[in-house]
């Protein structure tokens, strides 16, 4: 594992803006891969990941020949899962989870609230060495509108209640688009989830826009862990990589 104790995990979440710079002028996947490698994280939750895109591949000479999630995983995260959400004539994009440890099972659930926003919930079960039970990881990207977010949070709650044992370790991370803080009011009460930045710093992290973060859109929720450390990756190394900032956390199994 990346840290000394097999009870400790280092995780991160990042909306990668389809592998393009903030104003879509250049491909930033090579820089992004270097930055992610430098974090030394065990599991990464990614949103807006392109699986295929013929137009961008034609436009940019340095566009990878493989999918973005395979390109980013490379030899560092040998297991990965991709949930295709938005499908169009020239390609598709969605969420991805990259893992140092074996992904035993995964499923992508369509939680789109209407036909104008394709959204998904990627659920993986991961085998952590030395753990008796599997780690459940859910990567989400919720819609922009309040009503749709409510429906999507209900779908998440239903899935967790049905498929995640109450004593199983659980991480839910991603882009919640939740500037009103609705999830922070619902998820702790209904699912006993803890938001890591709220726990560590008193408030969820400001993560959007990356050049001057004002909105608290990206979150990491946990159950069955203590928070050891949580940080926003906002410095010159990360500037211009995406329109969101990346978040990382060190968590320890209870």
From TrEMBL:
Q: Which GO terms describe its biological process?
A: GPI anchor biosynthetic process
Q: Where is the Endonuclease/exonuclease/phosphatase domain?
A: 12-244
The answer to whether keyword Protease applies is no
InterPro entries, A to Z: Endo/exonu/phosph_ase_sf, Endo/exonuclease/phosphatase, GPI-anchor_lipid_remodeler
Which UniProt keywords are given for this protein, alphabetically ordered?
Hydrolase
The record's SUPFAM superfamilies line, in alphabetical order, gives: DNase I-like
Any one GO molecular function term: hydrolase activity
Instruction: Provide one Gene Ontology cellular component.
Output: membrane
Q: Which Gene3D superfamilies match?
A: Endonuclease/exonuclease/phosphatase (3.60.10.10)
Query: What PANTHER family does the record point to?
Result: CALCOFLUOR WHITE HYPERSENSITIVE PROTEIN PRECURSOR (PTHR14859), ENDONUCLEASE_EXONUCLEASE_PHOSPHATASE DOMAIN-CONTAINING PROTEIN (PTHR14859:SF15)
What is the protein named?
Answer: Putative metal-dependent hydrolase
Q: State the organism named in the record.
A: Nitrosomonas mobilis
Gene encoding it? ybhP
């Amino acid at each position: 594992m990346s840290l000394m104790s097999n009870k400790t995990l280092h995780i991160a979440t990042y909306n990668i803006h389809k592998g393009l710079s903030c104003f879509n002028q250049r491909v930033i996947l090579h820089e992004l891969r270097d930055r992610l490698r430098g974090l030394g994280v065990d599991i990464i939750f990614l949103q807006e990941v392109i699986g295929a895109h013929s137009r961008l591949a034609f436009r940019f000479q340095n566009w990878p020949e493989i999918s973005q999630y395979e390109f980013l995983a490379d030899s560092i995260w040998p297991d990965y899962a991709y949930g295709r959400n938005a499908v169009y004539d020239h390609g598709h994009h969605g969420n991805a989870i990259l893992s140092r440890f074996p992904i035993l099972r995964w499923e992508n659930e369509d939680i789109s609230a209407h036909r104008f926003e394709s959204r998904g919930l990627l659920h993986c079960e991961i085998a952590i060495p030395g753990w008796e039970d599997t780690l459940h990881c859910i990567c989400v990207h919720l819609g922009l509108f309040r009503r749709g977010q409510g429906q999507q949070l209900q779908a998440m709650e239903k899935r967790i209640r049905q498929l995640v044992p109450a004593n199983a370790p659980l991480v839910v991370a991603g882009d919640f688009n939740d500037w009103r803080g609705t999830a922070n009011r619902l998820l702790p009460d209904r699912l006993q989830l803890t938001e890591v930045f709220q726990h560590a710093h008193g408030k969820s992290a400001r993560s959007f826009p990356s050049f001057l973060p004002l909105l608290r859109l990206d979150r990491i929720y946990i159950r069955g862990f203590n928070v050891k450390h949580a940080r926003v990756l906002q410095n010159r190394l990360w500037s211009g990589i995406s329109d969101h900032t990346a978040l990382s956390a060190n968590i320890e199994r209870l």
